[in-house]
Design a protein that fits this description.
Elements (H helix, E strand, L loop, with lengths): L3 E3 L3 H10 L1 E4 L3 E7 L5 E7 L6 H18 L7 E7 L8 H15 L26
Helix pairs in contact: 2-3
C-alpha cells in the first residue's frame, strides 16, 4: 500500500463509522467517508463473531491483499474501513477481492480502466483532432 496510510486511532475509526456511509456484501462491509485533500487512509478489521484469532487475522490479511491489488484504481481523498464478515465458508482471495471491488464501485470510489487518474468520473473526453476550426 504505497499511497494509503493506515487508520490507527479509535477516534479515527469512530469518525468514519458515525459520519460516513457503509455498504455490505457477503464477505465484506465497506465504511467510507470523504475527507479533505488527496490522501487515502485505510482501516482493516474483522468481526468479533469470527471465532479465533487465527481466523480473524486470516480475514484481515485477505482484505489487506485485496485492497493492495486494487489500490491504484481507488479515487483519492477517502477514509475507508474494510470489515471482514463471519461466514460459514472460507472465501479465499477469489471470494473477497470481487466483493471489495464491487463495494468500491457501488460507493463511486473505484475508477474504471479507461478513466484517467486525475479526471472525475463525469468528465467527457473530447478529441481535439475531430473538431474543425
Amino acid at each position: 500500500m504505497k499511497k494509503t496510510l493506515p487508520l490507527r486511532q479509535n477516534y479515527e475509526f469512530a469518525r468514519v463509522y458515525q459520519k460516513g456511509r457503509f455498504l455490505s456484501s457477503r464477505f465484506v462491509v465497506l465504511h467510507y467517508l470523504k475527507r479533505q485533500g488527496k490522501q487515502m487512509r485505510l482501516g482493516i478489521t474483522a468481526s468479533r463473531q469470527i471465532s479465533g484469532s487465527v481466523q480473524r487475522n486470516r480475514v484481515k490479511r485477505l482484505l489487506r491483499e485485496s485492497y493492495r491489488l486494487v489500490e491504484e484504481r481507488v479515487k483519492p481523498g477517502y477514509d475507508l474501513i474494510l470489515v471482514g464478515r463471519n461466514t460459514r465458508e472460507d472465501p479465499g482471495l477469489q471470494g473477497v477481492m470481487p466483493d471489495v471491488m464491487r463495494l468500491l464501485r457501488r460507493a463511486g470510489i473505484y475508477r474504471d480502466q479507461n478513466q484517467p487518474a486525475d479526471e472525475p468520473a463525469t468528465a467527457q473526453h473530447v478529441d481535439s483532432r475531430s473538431q474543425k476550426p
